[in-house]
Amino acid sequence: MQTMTIDLRAMGGLYEATASVREPASPEELSALFQDAAARRQRLTLIGARRSFGEHFLPPEGAEGVSTARLSGATRLLSTEADGSIWVRAPGSLTFEALHREYPHHLPYHPPTGDRISLAGALVACAHNAVGFFAEEVRAFRMMTPDGAVHECHAAAPGIAGELFRQVPGSFGALGVILELELRLFRVRERQRAEITVLEHCPTRGFTALERLEAVYRAGEYPLGRGLFFLGRRGMSVLLGDRIVMPEPHDKAAPLPLTDDSTRRNIVAQGIANRMPGLVRPFQGLVLKRGRRFHAGLYGFTFFQRSYDRAYDYLASPAVLPRMLRALGVDPRLTVCHQTFAVPVERRRAFLDMYFDVFDAYPELEARLEQQDLIRLPECAWPLHAAHGMPGGAYLLTVSMSVRRGQPHEARVRAFLGEVSRRAFEAHGVKVLLLKQAHCEPALLRRMHAPFIEALGALKQRVDPHRVLTSRMLDALGL
User: Fold this and answer.
1) How far is CA 283 from the centre of its chain?
2) Which of 41, 156, 382, 478 is the 20 to 30 A CA-CA neighbour of 298?
3) Contact at 8 Å (CB) between 74 and 55?
4) Which structural domains are found in the chain, ordered by start?
5) Per-residue model confidence as pLDDT tens digits over 441-458
6) What is the pTM of this model?
7) In whole angstroms, what is the distance from residue 403 CA to residue 208 CA?
């Protein structure tokens, strides 16, 4: 079994670690590794494709990492549906980028927005897009738990395999390694494009764009995606609606930055925006005018954060332009503090009013603001997701601010997000989504996610009685 020491860096650049990592090449080696760790009381952290937003794959002190990259295998076509969609069985360690190379005319439903995330990583994180959850299109998976048992998990499976099927989405590597999974992909036909339309560009006060987002969601319009962006503190709101179209040859809708294939240009733009985020907002207002339409390739639209994921490799390189950008103060990590809040539908206005009230007390942070986006998701069927138990679905507000580690404004951003977390939970039942970073006191996080911790802890005790699997995030939750 291969052992190496590697640097681990979370997406968003805020968290890093250097860890000893084991890399089993077969399920048998993985089982032996689990058995040895239990005997030695050695804790392990699954690092997967190293593409989480927070501390999910970073080992705490004394723990070792486990890479699943060599636990590969063949991807198999299982069936083709009447609408052209297909079911495939793929290794859990496979990335979305690699899956697309094998099936270039198909795309997954509701994946995360980065294409270098592994399929298993997306499932255990209960990842989502703007309209649904990735787990909805996974009908089965084969999983090895730390006790060495292998479970065939699906909705009708009896006993512990059925429990794992329901509770692995959102478990963040606490329960074992997904060896294979079965998922559905939809057919992408030649010339099909994503069309992004600016439905509203109006003042935030009064929440006109918010209520239109709710109306669009209830009507089932723009099934490819719906997103609301807040520009600044109570500034303008921009509502986008997305759908798949077959444009006529004469339709010359403009491309939309980040969704096109100019990866290097997007990286440079993101680097400048991260260095001076206040420069971007005026351009957003000029580009995102009400009624304007944009077109994008479906792969680029689906994985629009892929350039962000590749940014460090380019910005840290010795090429001339990256060296110039670094001289101007661009941090190759593109470091941000970000956090997502899961908001009950009926509390959306009250929460946003409270959020902007708190923001008013931190006026200097507006210059650090990169993004405030809101999406509307249906009811969540997965017990370990923060939006589970919210009738009728939930809103997810994601806030992202550019920071420099160790500087005073980082502490202020953390304080701001922590204050919003406390007040939002106590007054409105809003929870911090564990998929992203969590900038609030661990005690509050544990209180907020007490049902999650209880359910996951009970199942973990059955499949991982020696508590072999951990991470910095799981440690913070007391798991």
Assistant:
1) 26
2) 382
3) no
4) 76-188 (3.30.465.10), 335-440 (3.30.70.2520)
5) 999 999 999 999 999 999
6) 0.95
7) 31
